From TrEMBL:
GO molecular function, one term: monoatomic cation transmembrane transporter activity
Coiled coil: none
InterPro entries: NAD(P)-bd_dom_sf, RCK_C, RCK_C_sf, RCK_N, Trk_Ktr_HKT_K-transport
Keyword check for Transferase: no
Residue span, RCK N-terminal domain: 44-159, 271-379
Location of the RCK C-terminal domain: 180-265, 393-475
Organism: Haloarcula hispanica (strain ATCC 33960 / DSM 4426 / JCM 8911 / NBRC 102182 / NCIMB 2187 / VKM B-1755)
Short name of any one Pfam family annotated for the protein: TrkA_C
Keywords, sorted A to Z: Plasmid
Protein name in UniProt: Trk active potasium channel
GO BP term (any one): potassium ion transport
Top-level taxonomic group: Archaea
Gene3D superfamilies the UniProt entry points to: NAD(P)-binding Rossmann-like Domain, Regulator of K+ conductance, C-terminal domain
């Protein structure tokens, strides 16, 4: 009898231990797993991101600064797990699936952003409209000619950041030859903010801000300076301008025209001496803008096409020589790969030390690398895309989607009743208040004694991370 009881007890223990892997272990795995979930809970008024990349990274920074929640839907399970482990709000799923969008609580979301690819995005949009016909939808397109299909699928907004980026890069090239073609952002009637790359040989090279006498000679106010990819606001008194410096100034049109003349080196650049490397969407946008402005140019691309003058790799010195890079005044690097752009910058700078290099960066983190390699002016595709998305999703007026510097118009809450000096915005955030709008009247270059009143809209300039700091501190 005792033997039978012992056998039954032993059998019970065996069954319990046998059941542990099936019943108990999964509970601990769920509690401590690094795997991305298949759904989210508790999100409301959030943004559903149907993919993740450098563009979404910039947008997430904007959303986080404003306290807006988000969820990323990632079809690649391994990639979703990596994002989850890194602390992102992410779920695994197919963004084309109604079920996945429901698990992302799309019915409770404020907006959906489709950024998979040009063919998949319309399918995502149709699914989104099936789940919630009222949710705001934004679609990004690589090829601007496909924009109508995205609208037919239900997109409220269709963005083509590459086209915008190409136009901005072309604007910088045109400004090199034509002092009147200042690519500024209008703050008020006859009051702009603009960026001015210094050309090699400019009279400002080697001078400090005080020695230059810019304000006394032109009336333009320098609010910041880019020095080899680092932004300083206000400009440090001991920093001397070099051929990689970019001045950021505010002023009247005539004042900025005079400043532009000081940044040029007359006699080096000649109209028509422009080389464009890379003839994808960005490169074609550059050439379209240059053609409209009446400029001649030489194009380089690995693929033979009627619009390509020199077929080859822009990192190859022989190819660059065929494009007459030694005699060119400006080169626009519109390459789809940042590593290639960095290498091409080294090669071009070696062949022509005085050429102006205007470059596209696909990832924001590579902007500083391109500057260190020798580029004169760099625009980030990720930053342009992220700003355009943030402007729509956050319903904010971002005045400068296509510049190195970000410019926003916003009200503030935590500085009402304080003067600009007391609010200490520049020292606390690195941003500069360039103007304020009160009762439909714009006050430009407000003094330190200017007191912020309820309802005032401040126009604030700064780099992306500093603008995020300003928004989290004062907005």
């Amino acid at each position: 009898m005792n033997y039978l009881v012992s056998l039954m007890a032993l059998s019970g223990l065996v069954l319990i231990f046998a059941a542990l892997p099936v019943l108990v272990v999964p509970l601990f795995e769920d509690a401590f797993t690094s795997s991305a979930p298949a759904s989210v809970r508790g999100l409301d008024n959030h943004v559903v991101l149907c993919n993740y990349g450098p563009r979404e990274e910039v947008l997430i920074d904007e959303l986080t600064a404003r306290g807006v929640q988000y969820v990323i839907i990632k079809q690649d399970r391994e990639a979703a797990d990596e994002l989850h482990a890194a602390g992102y709000t992410v779920m695994s799923g197919d963004p084309e699936s109604d079920a996945a969008l429901k698990r992302a609580r799309l019915e409770h979301a404020d907006a959906l952003i489709a950024n998979v690819d040009d063919e998949t995005n319309p399918s995502v949009l149709l699914s989104a409209r099936e789940v919630d016909s009222e949710v705001r939808t934004v679609s990004l397109t690589e090829d601007p000619t496909t924009a109508d299909y995205h609208r037919f699928a239900g997109a409220d907004h269709v963005l083509s950041p590459k086209r915008i980026l190409g136009e901005q890069l072309a604007g910088k090239a045109i400004g090199t030859f034509d002092p009147e073609a200042i690519e500024g952002v209008e703050i008020d009637e006859d009051f702009d903010i603009a960026e001015f790359p210094l050309q090699s040989g400019s009279e400002l090279i080697g001078q400090t801000i005080a020695e230059s006498g810019i304000f006394e000679r032109t009336g333009a106010a320098i609010i910041g300076v880019w020095v080899r990819g680092n932004f300083h606001s206000p400009p440090p008194p001991d920093v001397r301008f070099d051929a990689r410096s970019v001045l950021v100034a505010t002023g009247r049109e005539t004042e900025l025209d005079q400043l532009k003349e000081m940044t040029l080196f007359e006699g080096w650049h000649r109209r028509g001496d422009v080389v464009i490397a890379g003839m994808g969407v960005v490169g074609r946008s550059v050439t379209s803008s240059l053609t409209d402005a009446g400029f001649e140019y030489t194009t380089i691309d690995p693929e033979d096409h009627p619009t390509v003058d020199v077929v080859g790799d822009a990192t190859d010195r022989d190819v660059l020589r065929k494009a007459d890079i030694m005699d060119a005044g400006t080169v626009v690097l519109a390459l789809p790969d940042d590593t290639a752009a960095i290498f091409a910058t080294f090669a071009i700078r070696e062949l022509n030390p005085r050429i102006e290099i205007i470059a596209r960066a696909n990832e924001h983190e590579n902007v500083s690398k391109l500057y260190r390699a020798g580029a004169d002016y760099v625009l980030s595709l990720a930053a342009v895309s992220g700003r355009m998305l943030a402007s729509i999703v956050l319903d904010e007026e971002i005045l400068s989607p296509g510049t190195q510097l970000k410019l926003i118009r916003t009200t503030v809450t935590d500085a009402v009743g304080k003067s600009l000096a007391d609010a200490d915005i520049r020292n606390r955030t690195g941003c500069t208040v360039v103007a304020a709008e009160r009762e439909r009247r714009v006050i430009t270059n407000p003094a330190a004694s200017f007191v912020i009143e309820s309802g005032d809209e401040l126009i604030v300039a700064g780099i992306d991370e500093n603008i995020s700091r300003f928004q989290s501190t004062f907005v």
